Amino acid sequence: MKSRFTLGGTLAAAAAIGGSVLIAADDFRSGGHEQTVEANAMVRPVLPEAVSSAVSPLVDAVMSWSGPKDEALGWQTAQTATYTLHYDGGRESDAEMIARYLNTAKDRMSEEFRAHRPHDLLDGIKLEVFLHPREGEMASESHATMTSNLQRQDYEAAIHLLTPSAYGSRNGAVSRRDADKDYLFRQVVHEVSAVYVQRLILAKPEGWHYDAAAPWFLQGYDEYLAGIHGRRSEDATLASYRDRVRNDPGRVQFDGGIEVGNPYSDGAVVVAFLHDMYGREAVQDIWLSPEPTFERALLTSLDTDYPELERRWHLWLGAREG
């Protein structure tokens, strides 16, 4: 990921400060309106630390569309009690849609992490959301990006999405079908869940670090949450992922660890298996584990080993075939 696409200086201004930033380039490969998602592995280059605007804890808020224009960005900036939203002037309907999605995602994740004081996790963080008017390095029809400084104190993060009305522009027409909205909503949930998870693991006093997780767990976890918390109850994304693994079992392999063909879709299936077999609390305990490595955290939190995981995996996958 190159830093020349600076979003009005967000990364460039930080160059003078220095520091590191985690960049998760969530690359979704869409199969038309079926929105079958494929993805590349997570990218973690060391780049200048992102600078963001202040934001208070995530709570439902009404957008303010009459705010001042941010001349540095050349975009409109709407400040809420939840986040700072940057959008292209004249696309207020796009910003309103994403604001609704962000607030819904916040509600879903607050419920998902209800045992861990979710509002406290987000107290005092800084979060910016950018709706890009055209495809580029940070956002396109096939990928979104989430950046974070991964700091326990003064946590800052930014989510980069292609603005909704830009979808379909490459074909000369803007598509706003339900399938496109479902896809956008999953992107939002995926990125918002990453903020919750990062804050959860940063709050623990000791143990393995967020960026030390296996890619299948790191991205699969967020993709699993995006699947079970879809915009519509009939969202079949996770089911399509499972079918793909059943048809090609070699996509997930156990050999002294877990290897997957795709950290997003295949990873989401493995995370679904862990939830079904061990329960939500046990899987969340992996994040909270004081163990020094992800592998040890996985096995001790689930009280198992890889041979037993593999045995249960095949039983679980086979049971769902009928």
Describe the structure.
The protein has 322 residues and is of the alpha+beta class. The chain has 2 domains: 12-202, no CATH class; 213-319. The protein has helices spanning 12-15, 92-112, 118-121, 178-202, 215-228, 237-247, 265-278, 280-288, 294-302, 306-319; strands at 22-27, 69-70, 75-79, 84-87, 126-132, 143-148, 156-162, 252-254, 258-260. The strands form 2 sheets. It has a 7-stranded mixed sheet, with helices on one face. A two-stranded antiparallel sheet has the order 8-9. The longest helix has 25 residues, at 178-202. It starts with 11 loop residues before the first helix and ends with a helix. Residues 1-20 and 29-70 have low confidence and may be disordered.
Unreliable segments of 5+ consecutive residues: 1-20, 29-70
Count the DSSP helices.
Answer: 10
Q: How would you describe the shape?
A: globular
The count of DSSP E runs of length 2 or more, i.e. the number of strands, is 9
> What is the count of distinct domains?
2
Strand order of the largest sheet: 1-6-7-5-4-3-2
The helix/strand series, from N terminus to C terminus, equals HEEEEHHEEEHHHEEHHHH
Measured between the Cα atoms of the first and last residue, the distance is 43 Å
Strand content: 5-15%
